[in-house]
Each structure stands twice: as structure tokens, then as C-alpha cells.
Amino acid sequence: MPVTFVVRRVGATPAAPAGVGEGAGTGDDHVKLSFDGTRITLGRSASCDVRLPDASVSGRHASVRAGSSGYVVVDEGSTNGTRLNGEKLSAQAPRALKTGDVLSLGRIEIVVKIGAARTSTAADTRELALALVQRMLGEASAGACPSVVVVEGPDAGATLTLDAPGARTIGRDPRCALKLTDRSIPPIALEVHAEGARVRVVARDPRTGATLGERPLGPPDRPEPQLWNDGVIVSIGATRLRLDDPLARALEASAGFADEKVEPLPPPAPEPPKEPVPAHSTQPPGASEAQGEPAPRTEPLADSEPRGRDRRRSWRGATLAFELIALIVGLLVLGASATGLWWLLHK
Q1: Mean pLDDT of 60-82
Q2: Closest residue by Cα to residue 43 from 17, 74, 12, 86
Q3: Distance between CA 192 and CA 198 in Å, rounded?
Q4: Do the beta carbons of residue 135 and residue 247 sit within 8 Å?
Q5: Residue 159, φ and ψ in degrees, nearest 5
Q6: Residue 180 CB contacts under 8 Å (≥ 6 apart), including other chains
Q7: Which of 50, 66, 138, 197 could be disulfide-bonded to 127 (CB atoms 3.0-4.6 Å)?
Q8: What is the C-alpha separation between 137 and 246, in angstroms, rounded?
Q9: Interhelix angle for 122-137 vs 246-254, to 10°?
Q10: Distance (Å, whole) CA 75 – CA 61
């Protein structure tokens, strides 16, 4: 069963240039490749199945292997290590993979998907690497487009920039994108196709004897576009043309980088705690007692008025008793005074 790697460089937000990596399946910040093999190598080396041109990735960083129970990932003794869902793996210790797992190789993150998919080709792997180089260079790669340069012949120095996908013609015809004056070539000699990170070329008239490197460019019975790599010479008539691809050269240079030691990516931030819902808004009556929490005690409103009436009656009764006692004391004092006066008059 095929395994798909969705690859992105952490912190790189620029999208791939128009058309780059379309065969490999690109998004705004990722490229994906699918394989159906027993051993898939990941690293910066040109010999790796998944080529990751970043200095934080070792030449042969990790491998994904197929077994009877599914796929496993193995760190191949890399400088920065391999992490599976944030956990660092021990070197040469296989760990099982499942769909949704995230591998971290230096600054590169890979999401694993296991299931049916169209398997990628070597050209797709190259497109992935070129797209990652483009993102790694950022704004510095804005003008890094392939170009066809005339290196020998009457028009030496003439250049055709392939800054957009599509087909362009080269020849003596004034309508050609690159017009040449070499009378030994036909009016429309070559057709160049820019297809993302790939450049292909075909001889419009195979009888001209055009060559791509050391090979004939399109047999007379089946002229088909052939892949034109960086630095390779196309010869036709007295003219020699070379493809210059700055991104391809940067990709080749990245293989010679020394491993860059980087800090591991921080773990994802935890979700904020949910605010508790007030009990009075959602709990039905009696829910507090059901959860073992005593409900607050309240007095019935209906008893408040009788209790106030009783308090007023008690106050009035106390006042009357006080007045009665004062009256009795007053009468006793008055009686004592009268008795004393009578005694003085009759002495």
C-alpha cells in the first residue's frame, strides 16, 4: 500500500512559483510525494528518495520501511535526530507509523498518510526538492527562472527567459520567442516547454540533426519533448544553446552543506481551559444535592410578614409593662410622701 509524505519547511510561508511541483502535488506551503516500496530514504543527499535540501537535514537522515504489519520509521543516526509526533527517536530503533503521524527532521515537517495514491516519479522528487529550495531562498529566488542561453554561433549571448509555464519556439522565424540568424537552421527549429521545475525540448524538424547532449533530439518517427537539465547543451546547425537553471544549481550545492545543529521544534501550545458554566444558569433544581453539594438554605418569603407582626406585638407588650411598673412606683412614692407629711403635722 502506498505511503504519502506531505512535506513542508517550518517557518516558510511563500508559495511555490507558478507550476513548480505540480506533478508532485503542491499546496500553498507544502509538497507531497507518494511511494510504494519496501524502503524509502529521506535526507539531503541526491541519492535519497525524498530529497530535503535543508542544512538541518542530514545527508541520509531517516528511512521509512514497509513490513508485514505496516510501515515503520527509522532514524539513520542523523545530527538533529528524528521526532515522531514530538518524541525523539533513538537511532536505528524502528517505530510504527500510521496515518496522521508527523515526522520532524530538523526544520522539515512531514505528515504521513497511508493509503491508495498515485506513486511519484524521480522527476516528482526533484520538483519537491526545487520547491523547497525556492522556499528556503525566499525573496532571493524571485528572479531565479530557467533560461536558454546561446553560447556559440552567430547569435552568441542571446537569452530566452522561461519565467512562466508554456511552450516557446526558437528559430529564424520572426514570430519565435528566441529569434536566431543562423541560416543553417529551419525557421522554427526548436520548441521549449516550461513545465514547473521541468524544462523539455523537442526538434520541430527532426531532420535537422539536433542533439541534446550526445543523444539525438527526437527520432524522425517519434519526435517527443525530452527533459533538458541544467548545463546540458543542445546543438542545431552552427548554434549551441545551454539551459541555465539557478534553482537546480542551488539544489546541487545544498548536498555539500555541513549539517546545521538546530533546536527542536516547540511542542504545540495546549488548548486554553474552558470557563466553568455558572450553576444557576444550567443546573435544574436539586442538581447540587445530586452531586453531593448542599443547596443554600433560604427562608420562605411567605413567612416574612407574620414574623414582623410578632416582633411589633412583643415590643408593644414590653412598653405597656414598663409603664405599669412606673405607675406603681410613682403611687408608692406619693403614698410615702403623704404619710410623712401627716406625721409632721400631728407631732
Answers
A1: 93
A2: 74
A3: 11
A4: no
A5: -135, 140
A6: 150, 153, 154, 155, 158, 170, 171, 172, 189, 239
A7: 197
A8: 11
A9: 90
A10: 6
- Quickly state the pLDDT bin for 76 (edges 50, 70, 90): very high
Residue 3: phi and psi, rounded to 5, are -120, 135
Ranges 117-126, 178-187, 286-295: which has the least confidence: 286-295
The answer to whether 16 and 26 are in contact (CB under 8 A) is: yes
> What is the model's pLDDT at position 46?
86
More confident residue, 251 or 180: 180
Computed on alpha carbons and rounded to an integer, the radius of gyration of the chain in Å comes to: 46
Residues in the chain: 347
- Among residues 199, 197, 233, the alpha carbon closest in space to that of 215 is found at 233
The model's pTM: 0.59
* pLDDT for 130 beyond 90: no
Q: Cell triple for residue 65?
A: 520501511
The three cell numbers of residue 320 are 405597656
Quick one: which of 246, 231, 245, 216 has its CA closest to 151?
231
Show Cβ contacts of residue 296 under 8 Å, excluding neighbours closer than 6 positions: none
SS3 92: coil
- 211 burial (CB, 10 Å; 0-12 / 13-18 / 19+) is middle
Please state, for a pLDDT cut of 70, what percent of the chain lies above it. Answer: 66
User: What is the Cβ-side half-sphere exposure of residue 43, based on CA atoms within 13 angstroms?
Assistant: 26
Nearest to 210 by CA among 197, 194, 192: 192
Mind listing the pLDDT tens digit for each residue in 176-215? 999 999 999 999 999 999 887 789 999 987 777 899 998 8
Buried/exposed 44-66: b ≥16 CB within 10 Å, e otherwise: bbeebbbbbbbbbbbbbbbbbbb
Asked if the model's pLDDT at residue 57 lies above 90, the reply is: yes
